[in-house]
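Technical annex B. To support the medicinal chemistry partners, we prepared a structural model of the target in complex with N-(iminomethyl)-L-glutamic acid, based solely on the information shown next.
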Amino acid sequence: MYDLLLFNIGQLLLPASSSHPLKGEEMKHLHVIEKAALAVKDGRVAWIGQTVKGERLEALSYLDVQGKVISPGLVDPHTHFVFAGSREHELALKQAGVPYLDILASGGGILSTVKSTKNSSEDELLTKSSFHLERMISYGVTTVEGKSGYGLDRETELKQLRVMKKLQEKYPIQMVSTFLGPHAIPPAFKGESDQFLEEMISLLKEIKEQSLAEYVDIFCETGVFTVEQSKRFLEAGKKLGFGMKIHADEIDPLGGTELAVTLGATSADHLVAASEEGIKQLSTSNTVAVLLPGTTFYLGKEHYAKARKMIDGGAAVALATDFNPGSCVTENLQMIMSLAALKLNMSAEEIWNAVTINAAIAIGKEDVAGTLRIGAQADFVIWDIPNYQYLPYHFGVNHANSVFVAGKRFGGLNHEL
Ligand code: NIG
Ligand code: FE
């Protein structure tokens, strides 16, 4: 006897259950079952199949999906959703043509959010990030990665990571934490980035011992950290058993992409300015290129990451929001799917694979997220769309009709009001 049987599913999307990322041509294939049914028991996927006329599976409750589309819960593999304050005043600077890195160099940008985050209590931070997390879930995300990096000192970095741990306990969704201590150079270390990096390296052991993060990440960019410093930091993390990620070649082509491949990083993120050589190397590796077109859009840039070249050359691509208060202020992964269609020229099949199985692999969650497997936690979304191609096409709105986490409909924003 099942707990819940969803039937009359127009299309049930089943991305490949894979332990290696889908690369190149593989990204073009998306398994779809038409006229499908899905059964849930004890919060887990219990049965998947086609609805056969006249057949009636026994369940405690039934849900007629009325021909809508069901997909696995989306995976957002790159966000910075635990932060305090906001930076709407920077919009006017942007309009006046002040570049993102100049705002940072003059003490604003990331450093402005660092100030607010330092001044915020753990409880305030928990309340604010719960709100952002619930909004992400309301857009269909059931697995999410979150980074620290708005502390740049021991106390505040650990505070951010502890908040993420509390969120993991508070919500039934799957979460991954990343320590991004080297996110910017704080004013106290101006001109002394090596010393600051050593400070951040010295925190790794404590973070590991307290199981506060699974990954380490660094902002490898002009005026922030060099490729050599990034190598030093990531290797120190690797030695202690952390997975590696890198903010690479976002604005200038420093060679962070090549570094990620050389080190065997799980993912290399941004890659807007990645070199031809970096793109070539990606295709020979299992490092996932996590592309963030929302950031390119929000920073008002003309050129987007070369997703076509990456996929056609055989690389693995995932998509994420990069949600943060400065360079991409949206929790809406569906909007990113539209940008991927419009600005990265990705096909609908590639896009769905990039926000499910490849995104799960980019954060080491391929065993529990990214597709629907019998026996796995039942995280899925009922979409108000007639077919899967429709979602990227109709942009800027929320198509999620219902988001199920562990087999239960998630209440969503303000459900307690
Ligand atoms: O991924 N590029 C560096 N870090 C973030 C932005 C953080 C911020 O501006 O607050 C990013 O874009
Ligand atoms: Fe980021």
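Notes passed to the chemistry partners:
The mean pLDDT is 96.
Residues 122-138 form the longest helix (17 residues).
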